[in-house]
């Protein structure tokens, strides 16, 4: 997965495809490996993090019926945290666009999802001066 930091888009796409391919035969193993890699590399630049998140999303979508309930729950939580982290990273440069998109998740009379609130909090901390 270290090759995701390669600047060549073709290499990045090959890594994505390889993770998805491996995820077809061992979805839980790949999801756990991706999760562990993201945890160990919490400073990974967001474009490279996105490659791994995209692969995780594809593996989940293509294998949802095969996943154990506990794996699915853990992956969803971890995936949401990683996605929130990506939004916060992007928000350091494009705060208005991130805020605009995040605000679309608020609906009258419905409590917002925990990760939406956490993303707002982290955006304010990372952009507070």
Shape, principal axes of CA atoms? globular
* Succession of helices and strands: HHHHHH
**What is the mean pLDDT?**
85
End-to-end Cα distance: 35 Å
**How helical, in percent, are the residues?**
over 70%
**Given the helix and strand composition, which structural class is it?**
mainly alpha
Taking pLDDT < 50 over at least 5 consecutive residues as the criterion, the unreliable ranges are none
Q: What's the helix count?
A: 6
* Strand segment count: 0
InterPro entries: Maestro_heat-like_prot, MROH2B-like_N_HEAT
Organism: Pterocles burchelli
Pfam families: HEAT_MROH2B_1st (PF23221)
Protein name: MROH1 protein
Protein architecture, described:
This protein is mostly helical. It has one domain. 74% of the residues lie in helices and 0% in strands. The chain is built from 6 helices and no strands. α2 runs parallel beside α4 (69-91) and α3 (46-63) packs antiparallel against α4. The chain is globular and about 45 Å long. 21% of the residues are buried. This is MROH1 protein. One of its GO terms (cellular component) is cytoplasm. Residues 19-127 form the MROH2B-like N-terminal HEAT-repeats domain. InterPro entries: Maestro_heat-like_prot, MROH2B-like_N_HEAT. It comes from Pterocles burchelli.
């Amino acid at each position: 997965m270290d090759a995701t930091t390669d600047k060549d888009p073709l290499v990045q796409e090959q890594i994505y495809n390889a993770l998805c391919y491996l995820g077809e035969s061992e979805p839980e193993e790949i999801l756990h490996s991706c999760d562990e890699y993201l945890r160990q590399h919490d400073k990974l630049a967001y474009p490279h993090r996105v490659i791994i998140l995209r692969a995780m999303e594809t593996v989940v979508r293509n294998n949802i019926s095969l996943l154990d309930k506990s794996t699915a729950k853990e992956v969803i939580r971890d995936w949401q945290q990683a996605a929130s982290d990506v939004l916060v990273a992007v928000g350091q440069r494009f705060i208005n666009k991130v805020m605009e998109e995040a605000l679309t998740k608020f609906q009258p009379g419905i409590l917002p999802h925990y990760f939406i609130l956490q993303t707002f909090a982290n955006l304010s901390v990372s952009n507070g001066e």
